[in-house]
Amino acid sequence: MPKTLADIKKSLDCHLGRRLQLKANGGRKKTIERAGILRETYRAVFVVDLDQDDNAIERVSYSYTDILTEAVEITFDDEVATGVAAAK
């Protein structure tokens, strides 16, 4: 797991435009699972365009702190087959 926010951003920069699976803490023991494409990374947040078939909203954004604190877990689809989670 990357140790700093800068390391997390660099890791995500390498995966721009790739499909991913996203698990986020929804509060009160709820887990939100979504699929989409990593579109953009900014200084403090990253943006995921969600699949329209499964979600009512078009895109979501999370901070790199969410990954660091493990409130959000990202797995890229091409790495699911090998069992490697890039951002975790």
UniProtKB/TrEMBL annotation:
Pfam families reported for this sequence: VEG
Lineage top rank: taxon: Bacteria
Cleavable signal peptide: none
Coiled-coil region: none
Listed InterPro entries: Protein_Veg (IPR009366)
A GO biological process held by the record: regulation of DNA-templated transcription
Listed NCBIfam families: BflmStimVeg (NF046033)
Name of the protein: ABC transporter permease
Annotated source species: Rummeliibacillus stabekisii
